[in-house]
Amino acid sequence: MNLTNKFMLAFFNVIFVAFLIGCGGETDQPNTGDPSNLTVEITIATDDSGEVNFRANADNAVLYEFELGTSDNDTGSSSNGDFDFVYENTGMYTVEIKAYGNSGRFIKVERIVNVISGDPDTSGEGYVTPITYEGWNLIWNDEFDGSVLNQDIWSYQNGNGCPDLCGWGNNELEYYRSQNSWVNNGLLTIEAREESFDINDYTSGKLITQGKKAFTYGRVDVRAKLPRGKGLWPAIWMLGTNITSVSWPACGEIDIMEMVGGNGGEKTSYGTAHWRNTDNQHASAGDNTSVIDGLDQKFHVYSIIWNEQHIQWLLNDAPFYTLNITGAEMSAFHNPFYMILNVAVGGNWPGSPNSATEFPTQMQVDYVRVFQEQ
Fold first, then answer.
1. 328 with 289, same domain?
2. Domain holding 73: CATH number?
3. Which is the catalytic residue, given 67, 253, 329, 373?
4. Range of the domain at 66
5. Do 143 and 108 belong to one domain?
6. Candidates 51, 172, 258, 266; catalytic one
7. pLDDT tens across 125-137, in order?
8. Tens digits of per-residue pLDDT, 313-366?
9. 253 is catalytic
10. How far is residue 325 from each of residues 22, 280, 307, measured CA to CA in Å?
11. Are residues 32 and 173 in the same domain?
């Protein structure tokens, strides 16, 4: 693969009139051994490998040092200014580049690099979205690195809804347990199982950001691979934070993705909004879109773009439905919402699993990213 195909080139000409730094401290008195005119060219791989090439150049430089901005304080050096580094985790890193002259003094610049580093299980498998968009800020994200769920973001919502909302209002058959969700190899896994617990014949997992992460308006990207089988009902969705005071549907609900397994249902993603209308009744609107291969076959990115005028649903960056939210009865969609990830089993919509449904079955999530416009 040639350099043009593999890399996205970002060239940074860094203007600097700073000062020279040496063992004796700062000075504005250069000499012929001092470096000058430092420029940095940064090339970031587009194949999710996490590879970044730095090419620094300065007049009178004899050595270049690179502080890579990682939590492990990784560093490197080069005599010709060319340096490669592989970032293990997706993120934004502040890199400091120094150019040393024969005088022993140096000049430096800082650059921010945005890296997508896919884990070996998912890199190149399905659709991927960038971690930055022009005109947007990343306000929070979870790349599910490491081996422990980030409980600064997520909480487990366990149980079966009883006694107040048995079957969670949809006659679902699962009991949610924390044991059915885990983080490993760069993925969050939520596993549905056929096993008896409490009064239920199935268990699964449900994670929420309620009380921890909420936002009003923005872009949400969730990269996930879905389970397969009749009776499976995975969902990526949101509820208004005021649900505890106004209840549902007055709080509003935004279903970024729902899939109803069985009979070819694994090919279709549904995007829907729910609210209370001016007649004090439940109202909803939405649409769906399909892929040739099942959503269980590879990773896809489920997104919404939500602002004061509308909510737009996208699958792999392709819009398939837009809802106008400017009307008086749409007030729920101008308040903060929190995120939910779960795999339901059974219920009014998908029906019960049948003999062809294979357990255990999983939804795997590669990342959750929330952006807001600048």
1. yes
2. 2.60.40.10
3. 253
4. 3-115
5. no
6. 258
7. 889 999 999 999 9
8. 999 999 999 999 999 999 999 999 999 999 999 999 999 999 999 999 999 999
9. yes
10. 60, 17, 9
11. no
